[in-house]
Amino acid sequence: MTEFSDWIIRHEAIIRLSGFFSVLLLMASWEIIAPKRVLIASKLTRWFNNFALVIFNTLLLRLLFPMAAVGFALWIEQQHWGLFNMIPIPEIIAVIIAVIMLDMVIYGQHVLFHHVPLLWRLHRMHHADVDIDVTTGARFHPIEILLSMGIKFAAILILGAPALAVFIFEMILNLMAMFNHANIRLNATWDKWMRLFVVTPDMHRVHHSVINRETDSNFGFNLSCWDRWFGTYQAQPALGHEKMQIGLLEFREPHYLYLHHLLQIPFLSYSSDNRDHSNHSNGK
Prior knowledge:
- By secondary structure, the chain is mainly alpha-helical.
- The protein has one domain.
- The protein has helices spanning 3-10, 12-33, 43-64, 69-79, 91-115, 117-127, 142-159, 163-181, 188-194, 201-205, 212-215, 225-229, 259-262.
- Helix 4 (69-79) runs antiparallel to helix 8, helix 5 packs across helix 6 and helix 5 packs antiparallel against helix 7 (142-159).
- One of its GO terms (molecular function) is iron ion binding.
């Protein structure tokens, strides 16, 4: 590992927190100056409970996974396990390939959480938000967060992903999740060219539609190519971004904005638990 990458790993927490709060402030300001949609729920209530969930998830991860993903990757390197620790390859090439492969794994995980009924029960808490803004990007059920970390650890083990690659990937994933969930108005030309490479807010917003065929599209968080290559890309919502309905039809009551009700969502039974993914006409 080079001195530069070693320095980055040693200062991981500071760099990640700085990046998080910088992008959060930028997106929150942009949402005020140039919002894409008119929000329908109390922003104060949503933000308070969404951030309470983030804090809860962070503490839970630290408790159950004392070794974070970057630390796990360092340990894997020391054990010489995984693909990139067995094949002689320049570090920069290994880092680039590992970041891309980890992004594909997260895309696949996202698809899986939509199509396996038990996993959908967990993931639907993310989709139950009746508005979509920068805080929605961090709104995931604790059990989903733990499963996601386990999948990430397995991918790091198999790939032998360099610690620097894991750090870069996690930074990109967290920052892009805030960006592509943000309620911001992006110039149409910029959006057209940006989404050739990365997931834009207009691209990902389609994924939060109440219409099943739109919910089951645009699964990517960072690179936009996976949706195009695997046939899950949809350019625009049928009703347009301003008129489309966000969320899930069965979780629209105001009490679902609060943390204790959010945590109960996976354990509630609804007729849509086993979703009909062929339903292209509505969200029922």
